[in-house]
Amino acid sequence: MLKENYEKVKENIVRACEKAGRSPEDVTLIAVSKTKPLSDIEELLSDTDAVDFGENKVQELVDKYENVSRPVNWHMIGHLQTNKVKYIVDKVCMIHSVDSLNLAKTIEKEAAKHDVTVNILIEVNVAQEETKFGLSCDEVLPLIQEIKDFPHIRVKGLMTIAPFVDDPEDNRVYFRKLKDLSLDIQSKSIDNIDMSVLSMGMTNDYEVAVEEGATLVRVGTGIFGARNYNI
Ligand SMILES: *Cc1c(COP(=O)(O)O)cnc(C)c1O
Description:
Blueprint: H1 2-20, E1 28-32, H2 38-47, E2 52-55, H3 58-67, E3 73-76, H4 85-88, E4 94-98, H5 101-114, E5 118-123, H6 137-147, E6 153-159, H7 172-186, E7 193-199, H8 206-211, E8 216-219, H9 221-224
Parallel strand pairs: 1-2, 1-8, 2-3, 3-4, 4-5, 5-6, 6-7
């Protein structure tokens, strides 16, 4: 049952908050519904307090957006191609995966066309894995300096996808590094740049991420069960 899974994850988040002396209200659980049917989303919407859902494909997000029975906060968490920005810019509450000036420029242009302001996070490849998207820590501040005057973009913080590891403790160092980077940027008090959001932690490691300061955790498998990519 999805409800039990969801409530279990929420309990674990509360426990991780207690351990770290944080308030559970400061952590939002995003249910990552990618590859899962709309009926799963509807089930969570009717049985729980879930309102935040994450998708990583533009077409899938748009389909679900158009068919869901009540308003949902959609989070674009996957790699985003510039030619697809126009389909989601007015539908999402946040784009987690901005990792280039070119993408930011496209988001600015499309947001202006749709007369919306878009919340974004800068994706950081903290662990410097070759297979992953995202900027290195050194590249974040220079990109933010370029984006800060874009009128239709609000930088809200940072996002990372930690390595796939057996022991979630192995990722603590990367979560801490992302938090330190956000504090470092916050301390510069750059106009229009807010570093209050830290999107980090997935099924395997969200408790450690919460202990290290995550404000958004993205949990798929832990709520919906394993994904089947072959259907
Ligand atoms: C799929 C995905 C998740 C959720 O992964 P789980 O391990 O199933 O919790 C989180 N973040 C991103 C960016 C994803 O693509």
